[in-house]
Design a protein that fits this description.
This protein is mostly helical. It has one domain. α2 runs antiparallel to α3, α2 packs parallel to α4 and α2 runs parallel beside α6. The longest helix has 20 residues.
Length: about 120
């Protein structure tokens, strides 16, 4: 869907309607990362950074965690330094309980869907 950001966002919103995070831990983080990459593709780096700001801690696979981390780095304009990445992941692990308890991931997704008028 290169160059078709609005269509990609609509497809993501449609797929999100079928997600049951209680059965698939980390899936909401996967979607959050996908929406962040869509923001980056649309030139909305500030919005991508807002989406990923202390809203996620896990994803369904290590590859997805790397992709979300890369999106955050791109949005913030920081280098992909391994030490910086490790420190950031440890910081997020310490925030895990707060992120989950406050439903920050789902809140960020719902906020993005509302912003795009794609609310589920």
């Amino acid at each position: 869907m290169v160059g078709r950001v609005d269509e990609a966002r609509s497809d993501l919103a449609e797929a999100l309607r079928f997600v049951q995070s209680d059965r698939m831990p980390g899936i909401e983080e996967d979607f959050l990362g996908a929406f962040a990459w869509a923001c980056i593709a649309a030139g909305e780096n500030t919005r991508a950074a807002e989406l990923l700001d202390d809203t996620w801690v896990i994803a369904r696979s290590p590859t997805t965690i790397v992709m979300i981390t890369a999106a955050q780095e791109r949005a913030l304009g920081v280098s992909a330094d391994p030490e910086r990445r490790t420190a950031e992941l440890f910081r997020r692990i310490r925030l895990r309980d707060v992120i989950r308890r406050e439903s920050r991931t789902r809140g960020a997704l719902d906020n993005e869907l509302a912003r795009l008028a794609l609310a589920t």
